Homoserine dehydrogenase
Amino acid sequence: MSDKRTLKVAVLGCGAVGSQVVRLLTEQSDDLTARVGVPVELVGVGVRRLDAPRDVDLPDGLLTTDVAGLVARADVDLVVEVIGGIEPARTLILSALDNGASVVTANKALLAEDGPTLFEAAEKAERDLYYEAAVAGAIPILRPLRESLAGDKVTRVLGIVNGTTNFILDKMDSSGAGFSEALEEAQELGYAEADPTADVEGFDAAAKAAILASLAFHSRVTAADVYREGISDVTAADVASARDMGSVVKLLAICELRPGPNGDQVAARVHPAMIPRTHPLASVREAFNAVFVESEAAGQLMFYGPGAGGAPTASAVLGDLVTVARNRLAGTRGMGESAYADRAVQPMGETRTRYHVAIDVDDRAGVLAAVANAFADHDVSIQTVRQEGRGADAQLVVVSHAAPDAALAATVEQLRSMDIVREVTSVMRVEGGDE
Amino acid sequence: MSDKRTLKVAVLGCGAVGSQVVRLLTEQSDDLTARVGVPVELVGVGVRRLDAPRDVDLPDGLLTTDVAGLVARADVDLVVEVIGGIEPARTLILSALDNGASVVTANKALLAEDGPTLFEAAEKAERDLYYEAAVAGAIPILRPLRESLAGDKVTRVLGIVNGTTNFILDKMDSSGAGFSEALEEAQELGYAEADPTADVEGFDAAAKAAILASLAFHSRVTAADVYREGISDVTAADVASARDMGSVVKLLAICELRPGPNGDQVAARVHPAMIPRTHPLASVREAFNAVFVESEAAGQLMFYGPGAGGAPTASAVLGDLVTVARNRLAGTRGMGESAYADRAVQPMGETRTRYHVAIDVDDRAGVLAAVANAFADHDVSIQTVRQEGRGADAQLVVVSHAAPDAALAATVEQLRSMDIVREVTSVMRVEGGDE
Ligand SMILES: NC(=O)c1ccc[n+]([C@@H]2O[C@H](COP(=O)([O-])OP(=O)(O)OC[C@H]3O[C@@H](n4cnc5c(N)ncnc54)[C@H](OP(=O)(O)O)[C@@H]3O)[C@@H](O)[C@H]2O)c1
Ligand SMILES: NC(=O)c1ccc[n+]([C@@H]2O[C@H](COP(=O)([O-])OP(=O)(O)OC[C@H]3O[C@@H](n4cnc5c(N)ncnc54)[C@H](OP(=O)(O)O)[C@@H]3O)[C@@H](O)[C@H]2O)c1
């Protein structure tokens, strides 16, 4: 135990999350003292603008725009980074570690892009770098993956880790709305930003998938390793087609251990997928998040809660802060990066998936055989075919068994070029059931 | 860092859980070495009978009936207690700690009855005592409560923490079966023991409620502090009545922070309750467990998974073992008992609950007024009254607002004594909605 009488904390950023971190640090200070062992004193809050309105009452003199100076202070033990983005966040975190501070961050973008640089800096400085808030906001998921499941072998993680897209898809499912209409409603209600690209195109979820895959499989996975498709092409017809098979469309972050030529590989991808309504993830409504974990011994676990919001995210930040503070007092550190397994990343084309394909066809003899042949040509076996409508409205809905994603994509290509196929109206991967 | 080249572990008990702990220790040994930092070597397995059949292949010479001798070995660093029950488990854990070993246990009965003795021994010995597996099997819930939410204020925990009773109630709900029939089916399928008392009468859930309440509210709560009612009196009519209001009956472990005369008190109780089908806990089927946590900043979180079973429980034990082993190597300890808040336990009679009451009444003018008066006599306000049937089948279904439990019980007493009341056919508490 160190003889520290108090731990000094600097918070970088005082926006949606930072203001709530500051509020909790102040309001819960007696509890924090009891849980940490010594008082945790807020010594500075770094921002861009001194005069911006804040969601929290700040004691005089704490706010500063000299963020680099704040991080360089010799007396700062703990730094919370809730500015976001790559720079100046990266430089600030690196200089905090270099300066001997322990760091807590919520910055998924930075971790997914350049995590290894940060982890190596923490290792070199022999300091903690914690980031529970970076994935699924308030939901404790990184600590369970890293610690609770440390004696088990995680085989798959399926997550609804972006609230905006879940809100939009849930709206489309419950009201029959199209994508644009649902997006507009999400924007009006504050669930989507004016420029929704990062959420809607799956960039945010892909960053989280990289972080989840790294932890689950003890390997380095960055955002660039994650296959990514957003939801902007999901149509009301896709959602209706899912409904017809008792399924629902969700944007999933999927991280799996898959057999490769030289041992297990990591497959990480983000895309819309149909999952059965009976799957625990199917009941995750509105902007909530949930992460479903499969492991060898524990079986199936699910973690559910608010994936964003200032206060929920601040709760996760403070949880990390208490651990990091206790470690510091005890002169120890928590588990650092664990990448010993060093697995290769499986290319998306080789990753086995299942497809749901709806095809408008000419209603004549031999159509089904022709369509079935297209699948067979690519060694894709069919699980079910459903024929709907007659005449000009004739439609075939095919659900495949698992096959390499590239073979499925090539099958769809071939279907599109066939005479008897008027249109391929819906193509979507299927998850959460048997292969 | 210590210069230990290997950590030695003794496992006490080799039954459902112990055999899986031994299996994982062997099968995952490379991963465990990578995660802990040094090899974890199994040096002995304590049992009652040397010749009993085991679910795992044990290396020769590991099995011993001299359990006390195993625990007293000078070279044992880590002791896993999966014997269960009060004695000899307590004596063995105390002597392991006294001997300088760190301990991991799954023993909810012992922790709920005599936790403080164990925690004090761990404190005195300056050793870790971890017990994630004691509540909700594989589901990481204690670590999130204790660490992830350490910067937040937990206000309520609602848990389905007993798989046997959830299986029975789910069966009653889905098939209309009565309690005995559903219990028999649970026994046939291995979800209930031949003597089902501990599960069915809520003793097991009450032990878990005590553990959850202690952690959530940083206070000492033992099984004796937990109000307990089992499910053996739940009838098919209760379940049908719940269904009529869009609800489902679950055996809940409920831990709450409630205002008392001198600050917040802890209320902890286990009883069947009706919850709305839209509540996340309502969709927990069969023998699964789930714990729903409400906290000030994080909001509502849920943790879901298998609540029992050898392998899932062993996963939780191993997760603790990795942490405890790492702490030992680092010469540090995790968070010990946290009981600084030292809150009083609120008596059940004072705890505010809501009641659902179904009453067979005489079908004549003034009946509703008379029933309403009975509630008013005890200052209980009524949320809804539904009249069903006519004549000899006339029934009133009343749902109250929140009131002290004693006032609600007294109201039911009074109803039972009234002339116009033929029978009070169903009385059950209501949870998971607005007060
Ligand atoms: N919001 C959520 O629900 C949520 C959930 C999970 C994770 N996160 C993560 O949490 C982090 C913060 O998000 P947020 O929503 O709180 O962002 P935000 O509301 O935009 O706040 C950002 C804060 O950083 C400050 N800042 C920006 N650039 C700066 C610079 N160059 N130097 C100093 N200060 C600067 C801003 O100062 P001014 O106030 O002076 O402009 C502001 O206080 C991000 O990494 C985000 O991904 C957020
Ligand atoms: N089973 C679950 O799903 C589950 C879930 C959560 C928590 N737990 C907890 O885990 C613990 C173990 O449960 P379990 O289901 O594995 O029990 P179990 O199958 O009955 O196994 C008990 C083991 O302890 C040994 N044992 C019993 N009395 C002993 C004594 N006096 N001295 C030495 N060894 C003794 C037995 O030896 P023999 O084999 O020689 O008889 C047996 O190997 C309990 O605390 C339980 O509450 C169990």
